[in-house]
Design goal:
Structural class: alpha/beta
CATH class: Alpha Beta
Distance between the termini: 7 Å
Largest sheet: 6 strands, mixed
Shape: globular
CATH superfamily: Metallo-dependent phosphatases
Number of helices: 6
Order of helices and strands: EHEHEHEEEHEHEHEEE
Number of domains: 1
C-alpha cells in the first residue's frame, strides 16, 4: 500500500467557477487529474487530499464533486480547506461521503499502518491584513490541531503505526520560521506533514512554501497545479 497526496482540487461540477481565470493550465483540470490519478494509484492505496476540495456552497451541491473523488482509486482522506463552504457539521459530512472517502476533523483516522491527523489551520500574525477575527480563528486552530495530534500521538504510541499530519494552510510562520503549529507537529512525533493552499508563482515566492525535512519533519506542498495535476507519492 502506497500513500499519495494531492490538494486544492477546486472541483465545481455544479458551480460556475472556471479555474482558467488562474491560468490556461487549469483548463479541464479534472480530466487531467483523473487520467494520471487512475493510472498511478492502486485501489488499496491511500490518497491525502488536504482541503479546497469543492467550490460548492452547500453539502448537497457537493455531490458530483465528492462522487468524482470517490471514483478515483484509493481510500481518500479529506481535510477541510478555507473554500470548502459545503463542509458543515462533521456528522453530516461523514454521513454524506461515499464509501471510499474519509474526513479528518479534530480527530484521527487510521488506515492500514498509518494514523492521519490534522486541522485546517489559518493565516498567522504578520500576514497582510491580519485582524482581530483572524487572531481568534488562529488561536482556535492551534487548539484544534493540538487535540487532533494528541489523539494521533496516543494512537501511534499504542500500536506503533506512523502518524502523518494533514493541514490546509502552511504551518510555518509568515517569515517561514517556526510557529505554534510546527511546534505541535514536531512534538507529536510525526515525520511527515502535508499541506496545500498556496498556488502558482505566488507559492514559489512565499516564505511559507517550505518543503523538505525541517526539525525532523518532512513537509510537502501538494497544491495540484504545482504537481502538474498528478498525485505525489509520499510513502511506498
Amino acid at each position: 500500500m502506497a500513500v499519495w497526496g494531492i490538494s486544492d482540487l477546486h472541483l465545481g461540477f455544479r458551480a460556475d467557477k472556471p479555474m482558467t481565470i488562474f491560468g490556461s493550465h487549469w483548463a479541464e483540470h479534472p480530466d487531467c487529474m483523473a487520467v494520471t490519478w487512475d493510472e498511478i494509484v492502486a485501489d488499496d492505496d491511500v490518497v491525502l487530499v488536504p482541503g479546497d476540495n469543492s467550490w460548492a456552497m452547500r453539502l448537497e451541491e457537493a455531490d458530483l464533486d465528492l462522487a468524482w473523488i470517490a471514483d478515483r482509486p484509493g481510500t481518500k482522506i479529506l481535510l477541510k480547506g478555507n473554500h470548502d463552504y459545503w463542509w458543515s457539521s462533521i456528522g453530516r459530512v461523514r454521513a454524506a461521503l461515499p464509501e471510499s472517502l474519509r474526513a479528518v476533523q479534530n480527530d484521527v483516522i487510521s488506515v492500514d499502518k498509518y494514523h492521519f491527523a490534522g486541522s485546517r489551520l489559518w493565516d498567522q500574525p504578520g500576514h497582510r491584513g491580519f485582524n482581530a477575527n483572524d487572531r481568534k480563528i488562529f488561536l482556535r486552530e492551534i487548539e484544534r490541531l493540538k487535540l487532533s495530534l494528541q489523539l494521533g500521538k496516543k494512537a501511534a504510541a499504542r500500536d506503533g503505526r506512523e502518524l502523518i499530519v494533514l493541514c490546509h494552510y502552511p504551518p510555518f510562520a509568515e517569515d517561514g520560521g517556526p510557529s505554534p503549529f510546527t511546534e505541535l507537529i514536531e512534538d507529536s512525533g510525526a515525520r511527515l506533514c502535508v499541506y496545500g493552499h498556496l498556488h502558482g508563482r505566488r507559492a514559489r515566492c512565499q516564505a511559507r512554501a517550505r518543503e523538505g525535512e525541517i526539525a525532523g519533519v518532512e513537509y510537502r506542498l501538494l497544491s495540484c497545479d504545482l504537481l502538474n495535476f498528478s498525485p505525489l507519492k509520499l510513502r511506498e
